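Q: What does the assembled structure look like for these inputs?
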Amino acid sequence: MQLAFSAADIAAIVHPKSIKGTTSETIRDLAALRAAKPGDLSFLGNPKYKTEVAATTASVVLLPLDYVGEPSPGQQFLFVEKPSVALAHVCARIEQLLWPKPAAGIHPTAVIATGARIAPSATIGPFCVIEEGATIGERTHVQAQAFIGRNASIGSDCWLMPRVTVTTECVVRDRVRLQPGVVVGADGFGYEFVAGRHEKVPQVGNVVIENDVEIGANSTLDRARFSQTVVGEGTKIDNLVQIAHNVRIGRHCLICSQAGISGSTTVEDYVVLGGQAGLAGHLTVGKGSKIDGQSGINTDLAPGSFMKGTPALPYNLEQRINVLRKRIPELFKRVDSLEAELSGLKKPSAP
Amino acid sequence: MQLAFSAADIAAIVHPKSIKGTTSETIRDLAALRAAKPGDLSFLGNPKYKTEVAATTASVVLLPLDYVGEPSPGQQFLFVEKPSVALAHVCARIEQLLWPKPAAGIHPTAVIATGARIAPSATIGPFCVIEEGATIGERTHVQAQAFIGRNASIGSDCWLMPRVTVTTECVVRDRVRLQPGVVVGADGFGYEFVAGRHEKVPQVGNVVIENDVEIGANSTLDRARFSQTVVGEGTKIDNLVQIAHNVRIGRHCLICSQAGISGSTTVEDYVVLGGQAGLAGHLTVGKGSKIDGQSGINTDLAPGSFMKGTPALPYNLEQRINVLRKRIPELFKRVDSLEAELSGLKKPSAP
Amino acid sequence: MQLAFSAADIAAIVHPKSIKGTTSETIRDLAALRAAKPGDLSFLGNPKYKTEVAATTASVVLLPLDYVGEPSPGQQFLFVEKPSVALAHVCARIEQLLWPKPAAGIHPTAVIATGARIAPSATIGPFCVIEEGATIGERTHVQAQAFIGRNASIGSDCWLMPRVTVTTECVVRDRVRLQPGVVVGADGFGYEFVAGRHEKVPQVGNVVIENDVEIGANSTLDRARFSQTVVGEGTKIDNLVQIAHNVRIGRHCLICSQAGISGSTTVEDYVVLGGQAGLAGHLTVGKGSKIDGQSGINTDLAPGSFMKGTPALPYNLEQRINVLRKRIPELFKRVDSLEAELSGLKKPSAP
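A:
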């Protein structure tokens, strides 16, 4: 997408504390410092790239307040508290251009049950199916090809992208964004072993997604065996994540891609779960814990834990073991030598 | 969902061996012992919660035959062989209320090829696409937005939830339940490296899903390069699982979430594969083997194996190594000390 | 599917260098050497199965030029450069029978925005949604229930299988095959932590899929924070793979199932990433590197690296450590013994 912001437009979005230099270029794109050319907006998000600022040919650069340096001719520096946050505000403006707010209303192809209640300001896209008793809140956008089951409830100001499924009785509160292909409310994986066969335990609870949650593409959240599977307010879940039945995730957690949380585990507020990490079932992961990518957790964790490995150990211990691990072949040789030497020490006394 | 069972309704479902106490409460919900309040049905599924029975205020409690204790006033105990199985039977009744059997028939929006054969008692939901030569069996429910490819065959009493895909020539037998987003019959991942490029090996076999299989949300099963990829009778597969081309899974296996099985591997009957576990290609995993979560298997396994780790070792050995692993830093120090001491022992003889 | 090739039909497809024997059987199926019966085509793809050729009852067998042996009566041997490539050519012919080229045109149920441009030779299936400004190239087949967002561009000769999503502004070039449920252009996972909450960083870049790429079922590719997420020409991606925002994958890579690549990582040409492997963010994986299944990479890799484990080590070192790992319990005992012996050696001198 071709942008067309003036430097003044950018300043009006990011509210700089101070400005150095001027540019008459139209801002047509965003780029990293090194890749930027005239007509680009760039930013210093990570201090390790500080030396790239002097050489960048970006027309406008977002910089932290403590950056020391002068713009080139025809270049403008905007000094802000946090350049990455300022950039996010510019991106939010661009996002509105990429996805303009659709008109309210129900696409004529959508199949809406008589007893479903759709807020007048909501937008329902083509080929959506909304069953009996389901409700869709004000200004919510159900984009296309979504399935909303019986008595499911979607709050206001949500955005359900194409091909989202929210099944019977599940609850999605306000300002929730569900990426394409998300499944909220698949059956939990529960069976009783009876006479040599796995007999299904019907899963009759639901899923509750609290305010301001975002869930990534093709992630799956299982309905509770009974009662609820819960994702707390403000938690962000990446793509291809599995949340099993009766899991309770707290507020403001980050769950990275392809992580999995097994049944009935509780994750407290502000936990960060790295990509491809796995939590066993029936655990509690304490508030603010961080779990490194690919780690496997099979015990409760105290608040503030920082864990790594499978089975996971405290991060620093795991790192130390990983350094020593490379020297295990050498360690075996050293023990061989010790044994040989000791055996040599004992022998001389024999003859 | 608000339930309305009498205590007598519950007893009629679970057929208790004996009953203690009476309650006039209407059962409106299910709850764990500790969370339950009057109007709830609860159960003692795991003996470790036995002490919670005396304190629960659930109106009806399902208990094992050997439980010793008396109900509170207004509370009823139902004694059954296996409380968790009894609860599953109650849940099965609730499931029928949550998902009432739909009327037979084809939704007017569905696109059904002239040559497709749909049993008169089947239900085809909105926006389904059923291609030429496909067949749908008696009482099968294809819920919404499903795609059934040319000559694919779905048996009787199946439930295909929203957005399921079953591609050309694939076979799904009877009483199979496919959760939302399942893909049966994607192309296997096969290429020949020719002149610096990966040339596709067309995948012209199919997938066969035997009776009573269940497959979780967004799981993917690849069609065979030629011949068949097979999932055996009664096997249950969780969400986001990958089954590669020409895999053969036996009967009554449990494959947990995010596990992956590489091409041409055979998994015999009654195998349990933990979450995020991976099997390399062209292996045989013997009958009744158990593989712990996140494990990686790259050799054949004898029947009854119990494995853990990557690459996996017998469970008890892996557990023992995991205990010792934490002490590896200490072990290096001990070897340092031994070397120093031994060197000290040898020196004194010098002067 | 029942085939009906004559031996001459097979020869016309594979162009054998030489032929031994004749058969009058109609070829009705493909089978491995051991499983084949009269009427089957088989092949010797892997030399380790060479001894099975003499016993096979396949009617036609594809063999390498250096195979020494005679066909049975009524059996035909076709000698070719690479039997597995020859088989792939036969499979390509069968593929055309399984999925005959659909007629050009737009299914009457598809919802196509006025400003979308669909090539006259393209095929758009039922329930597809194609938004304003999107373009679909010549002979491309968008099979069913796909979603193509605003200004997205799909090249020529592509095949988008059922339920594929390509969001706003994303670019798919020519001869790309997207398996069912693929999501191209979900939001990248980016947040700024502000006042105790994760504030979304809008993701306003796109995804570019170059020529001849194939992407497996339910895989997800995130749009860039800004600029582009790129998959290079000829790269093949398996099912349930996660490609994060701003990742750049080179040409002719193989990314196996359930692998994940974190944000801003660059994967150079001809890299092979094993199943369930994970790459951390902001890395460069050098050209031609191979990464074993389930490995975790958290450092840059030089071209031609061959890595295994988490965190990954050079393959041979990791293999050696894995052999020694089983002996760690024994190693602890040996160090215990050494300490005891050394302590014994020192004591005698005391009295």
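Residues 324 and 331 of chain B are 9 Å apart (CA to CA).
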